[in-house]
Amino acid sequence: MATPISTADVAHVARLARLALTDEELEQFTGQLAAVLAHAADVEALDTTGVPPTAHPLPIDNVLRDDVVVPCADREEVLAQAPASESGRFRVPRILGEAP
Amino acid sequence: MTANPALDLAAAVRRGERSAVDVLEEHLARVDATEADVHAFNTVLGERARVAAGEVDAAVARGEDPGPLAGVPIALKDNLCTRGIPTTCSSRILEGWQPPYDATVVTRVAAAGAVAVGKTNLDEFAMGSSTENSAFGPTRNPLDLSRVPGGSSGGSAAAVAAGYAPLALGSDTGGSIRQPAALCGVVGVKPTYGVVSRYGLVAFASSLDQVGPFARTVGDAALLFDVIAGHDPADSTSLPGAAPVASARLGEGVEGLRVGLVTELVGAEGLSAEVVAGTRAAADALAAAGAKVDEVSVPATVYGLSAYYLIAPAEASSNLSRYDGVRYGHRAEGAADITEMYVATRSEGFGAEVKRRIMLGTYALSAGYYDAYYGQAQRVRTLIIRDFDAAYQSFDVLLSPTAPGTAFPLGEKTADPLVMYLNDVCTIPSNLAGHPAMSVPWGAGADGLPLGVQILAPALGETVMFQVAAALEAMAPAGPGSSAR
What single string gives the DSSP state of each residue in B76-92? Predict the structure, then answer.
């Protein structure tokens, strides 16, 4: 049985998920996540020794097709949906820490 | 014999007895009359639909056959990509996005002659059971405006129930087609995983998501199923080979079929007494019609809800990492660097339920918890599949309630996420197994609102599932959805 999820855990997970939470949201989500995880305690406690996991319902893997050239999406149409673009590329804010 | 609105309209349009434009105008007039109250749509496609309907009529005039859905208005859930038409997933983060391509199901219904009338409201990214999690406001149940239509495909269910279109497409990850179908008194189908293409369906939980039909009758649902089912090379999880035919054995009755009433689902947490009584009455009706009906235990289904709320959020946390403000949709203004931009964009763009599931999934996948939560849930998934397989050794189909009760009042279940999640207790096992299941209306509760029963079948068992559904429809007590429109 895992220890109950704490506000520190939730704050850590929010950082991993690139979400900023207010203190109020942090409190609320901690309680709600704890309730869902408590409900899952039956699953956590189940003896599944020797049971293989199912990641996917179909026994399909390595789907291949013939290597035929087909048209791809139009670049202008795709870039028209971007919040910002420049010279045929997606434009984003500064990535590295140095001064511009 | 039940009238099938979509089948009848398509037949009349193909014979040149009805014009697709007139059919469309009739449906758009209904939208105009009540949509301000119902809010089934995020976008109504008036002018585009008129052009499409005009093309159907022109094809008929030229002596061509526009296809099996000729001139039939259809509503599309707003998580299905439509080229040049906003596709929002009812999220601020995709507000205004116009996909550069159509989902395969959208292409297929158009090629069959259907006329898309609008994009329907949903719980944000299909996460919810009431359509109250939409960034654009809730949809209301057309049968009682104080109640929810269910969810997440609440807009599609409401559009069919309100007579805006005889057909709609939704998506079902844990019950998101079947539960709103039950609450709105219509038919809703989750196909076998891999039978209907997911290409262009905005991903929520990729190993569980399936697109499926809503209709007012089983015959109409079968018609739409047979149009959208089939292999699609653009979806690597699409099953090769021929799809099962839903309309093959409608009207053949249930004589000799073996029907199992699932003990654990009839006895599931939180079901109302009238829901259980309705399901037992449906089982009795099938027995009276010649089916061999018995109770059957599918023990691992009791772990379905818990396993689902670890697996689905885990997959969602991965799928939704793509919303970063770089390539499409919303971007927060004024960020100093890219990390700040990601965080601000996602925090502004996602609603509370989506954030909650992203965090739950991230947690279930994180170091130290992966095996206890996600790994364990995947092993439970194997147990559920094994137990279903054992039941299907002795039964052709299984029967259970669809939803725990009739449509509930807006706001009643929003305070506690776990209470909302319990709506899916009977529908989730089929998603985890990848099996087909559908909801058909079965009378009404004490509040006069519709009840539904669920028919479950093994993988690729759609033909027998629809056969049983048609028999149930023919024997069902009158419900509030059956006489309207």
Answer: EETTB-BTTB---TT-G
Mark yes or no for CB contact A35/B417 under 8 Å.
Answer: yes
Encoded tokens for B438: 């559908």
Residue B372 belongs to domain spanning: 302-378
Mean pLDDT computed over B261-281: 97
Q: Is the peptide bond before B152 cis (omega within 30 degrees of 0)?
A: yes
Indicate yes or no: CB of B239 within 8 angstroms of CB of A60: yes
pTM of the complete model: 0.97
Q: Would residue B272 show up in a list of annotated catalytic residues for this protein?
A: no
B164 touches chain A (CB under 8 A): no
Note whether B223 and B313 are same-domain residues: no
How far is B65 from B112, CA to CA, in rounded Å? 9
Distance between CA B152 and CA B77 in Å, rounded?
10
With CA atoms as reference, the chain B residue closest to A12 would be: B363
Active site annotation includes B482: no
ipTM field? 0.94
pLDDT tens-place string over residues B409-465? 999 999 999 999 999 999 999 999 999 999 999 999 999 999 999 999 999 999 999
A7-44 is classed in which CATH architecture?
Orthogonal Bundle (1.10)
On whether any CB of chain A is under 8 Å from the CB of B351, the answer is no
Note if B119 is an active site residue.
Answer: no
